[in-house]
Amino acid sequence: MKHFKNKVAVITGAGSGIGQALAIELAGKGCHLALSDVDQKGLLKTKLIIDSGPSGANVKTYILDVADKSLFFDHAKQVSEDFGHINLLVNNAGVALSAKLDEVKREDFDWLMNINFWGVVNGTEAFLPYLKQSGDGHIVNISSVFGMISLPSQGSYNASKFAVRGYTEALIQEMIADGHTVGVSCVHPGGIATDIARNARVSHSDDKELMTKNFDKLARTTPTQAAQTILKGVLRNKARIMIGADAHVIHFLVRLLGSGYQVLTRKLMGSMNH
Predict the structure, then answer these.
(1) Which of 62, 130, 157, 261 is catalytic?
(2) Which DSSP helix (H) or strand (E) runs through 231?
(3) Which pLDDT belongs to residue 215?
(4) Mean pLDDT across 121-131
(5) In whole angstroms, what is the distance from residue 167 CA to residue 174 CA?
(6) What's the pTM value of the predicted model, to 2 decimals?
């Protein structure tokens, strides 16, 4: 994909954070948008911001629970009918969960995986045929730096983001091997200033207020900066897109230290919890 003008982009989780920022950035580049979220107010806010600008983009909003496979396939069919073609899919919707693995409730673990991982799978399976048909398609799956390192109390979240990474990196190779004109990127954001920590589920032994406070300290990258980095990566057809200086540092440390990074993360987590 060499440009976004008159392309059609599908973005999940577009009611806030990175999803909202991507929608605004793409609209400014002349891209038409199919935006979804479970948060109707957030979606309407995103659309209002875009409609109040000079872009002239065709923007349609949809209420969608990405965990529902059947609804996702219906959504893909509806978007195709509404826009005629689809070029870009951003599987961005995600949630957070903080809990030790011997304390996490299975219903919370399932909730997380159904959105963070199966939501990505559902979106990819539903939209891939349309992206192939477009002749110029691209898929962006949002993983995390937590898809590269694991931390105490983040095992469930780590599992979902490592799963997204493994799934996406296999998809990248399959699209190339089979000669499809569909690029694929796996995105690993570091700390992004969004509300994901505030909206997270936590176990009884975790301090949500402290967790949110620590997250805010580390979240140095804005959603707009993240969106701009992602779109540059799409135009360059980058397989892996790192967002934020912290993500690049973590990426380097994992490559340098292997499993030795765990000594550093245990010390870091210990210092932050006191």
Answers:
(1) 157
(2) helix 223-235
(3) 44
(4) 98
(5) 11
(6) 0.88
